[in-house]
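Milestone M4 deliverable, item 7.
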Amino acid sequence: MSSLPTQDHPQPQSLSDLFVSFTLLALQGFGGVLAIVQRELVEKKRWMTGEEFVEDWAVAQIMPGPNVVNLSMMIGARYFGLKGAMAALAGMLTVPLILVLLLALVYAQFADHPGVAGALRGMGAVAAGLIAATGVKLFGTLRQNALGTKLCVVFGVLCFVAVALLRWPLFYVLFGLGSVACVLVYQKLKP
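Output delivered:
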């Protein structure tokens, strides 16, 4: 995880700013919050650089729990400590939880309707497209990675093959490939 951003970065002004910002992010992210979070935090709010986002997202992905919730807590803690982490967590969960509970009640009434099933399949395709688009958008940040672009692509392809094609458990793939990648980065970065 990167250190505190330099002072030329804008930053959240208060715990309320964190709460509201992450609530709005969560409300925009039905089915694919990664693209929205990257755009909001890096491009619009500029609370972090693209490189910081990729580093923090990588850490958030290997931690247990939802990636974006982990990222929100990391950002909240970076600026306001434990109170910031809790404000960001509350922002990510409070209003979306209420909406999901309300949607569950509505879904229970209309689950058998063929249009509902079709709409859900369509939303799945859109979510997959959002994730792919964000991956392509963030690909350029690999140039600054210690492993270099080519080796990062090799690790990405190996991970895809292991999880998507061979259907190996994600835990073992992350532990195995992640360990190798960590050793390689350590070798490249040690003085």
